[in-house]
Amino acid sequence: MGLALKAYELFKENDAIAKGLAEIIDSLEQSIKQNEAATKSDLKETELKLVKEIKELELRLSKEIETIRSSTIKWIIGLWFTQTIAIAAFIYTVIAQLK
Q1: Rounded distance, CA 40 to CA 48, Å?
Q2: Coil, strand or helix: which one is 94?
Q3: In the chain, which ranges are E strands?
Q4: Which whole number is the average pLDDT over 25-38?
C-alpha cells in the first residue's frame, strides 16, 4: 500500500479524488501480486511437466540405444564369422594349390 499512500498524500486537498486514486492503486498492486504468485505457480507446474517429459524421453532413448546396440553386435558377430570362414577357405585353397 506504499504507492497508494503516496498518491493519497499528493492529492489530499481533494479527499474524494485522493481516496479514489489510492483505492485504484491499491487494487492494482494487489492484482499484480496475485498475478506474480500465479505466474510462479505456473512456472513450477511447467517445470514439473518438462522434467517428467525429459525423463520419459531419456527412457525411450535408452531403450532405442539398447536395441541398436544389440542389433549392431549381431551384425558384427555375423560379419566376423563370415570373414573367418572366407579367410579359412582362402588359406585352404592356397595350401591345396601348393601341393
Answers
A1: 12
A2: helix
A3: none
A4: 78
Cell matching residue 44: 513450477
pLDDT above 70 covers what percent of the chain?
91
Q: Would you report the helix, strand and coil content of the chain in percent, each value rounded to 5?
A: 95, 0, 5
User: In three state form, how does the secondary structure of 52-77 look?
Assistant: HHHHHHHHHHHHHHHHHHHHHHHHHH
The pTM assigned to this predicted structure is: 0.48
Q: What does the buried/exposed string (b/e) look like for 26-50 if buried means 16 or more CB atoms within 10 Å of the residue's CB?
A: beeeeeeeeeeeeeeeeeeeeeeee
Give, to the nearest 10 degrees, the angle between helix 2-10 and helix 15-98. Answer: 150
User: How many angstroms separate the Cα of 64 from the Cα of each of 8, 13, 51, 57?
Assistant: 66, 75, 20, 10
Scan for cell 493519497, then name that residue. 8
